[in-house]
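User: Please check token order:
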Amino acid sequence: MNNLLKMERYCLKHNKLFWGCLFLIAVIGMLFSSSYVENLTVRMDAIGIFDVMVYDSTFCLILFSAIITMFLGQEFSNRTITVLISSGHSRAKIFISKFLTYLVVFNIFMLIFPIVGSLRMSFVLGWDGLLIDNVLHVLQVIGFSILFNSTVFSVCVFCAFFFRDLAKSVSVATLVILISSLILAYGVPMGWFSSLRLLRFLPMYQIREMLSYSLSTVQITEALISGFICMLFFIVLAFRSFRACELK
């Protein structure tokens, strides 16, 4: 397992697309952060910018879901996984190493956008409130963001390991995330989330809910359970599909 993880780190270190995406999203975060000032309602400081950028990161989920699924899909189209299996590595270890590596990559991509944006705007708007309160709030938002971003990522993993085809994997994963974002965009103002409680468990919706400064224990527990169950569901399906498939 350690050797597989080292290999994954080495490949990422020399992957120009990975560094290009990282640089691009950092630049986008810096350039677009000032445009979020007009959306501030609760807090008029850099923490407010951070919250708003996390709230409005749906387009990042769509974009990076496509990119990560493409990375995973290339593992099959380039026969990398087939070579690893032929080398004697178990499918379980290969799956875990791929999952952990790209899980970290996906969350780095998603968090760079609001972090860079809020840091840039901190020189303009500053930081209100107590330092410890600000730190705890940011850590809470990051923690929940990682959980629900990982839930979205698990859908990408399922598509990649189920279809084992670059075009199909990217198309289906992107379509699923896009439909979820459209449901969120149109469903909230139309009251769908109030009448259909099941919709409230959409990861994108939960991320926005967790930005609140007054979360109850019930809300936090419900969010944690729903996030982990949803992520585990798609991970199990992905691994079962990978374990049963025949690689050519």
Summary: The CA atoms of residues 192 and 199 lie 8 Å apart.
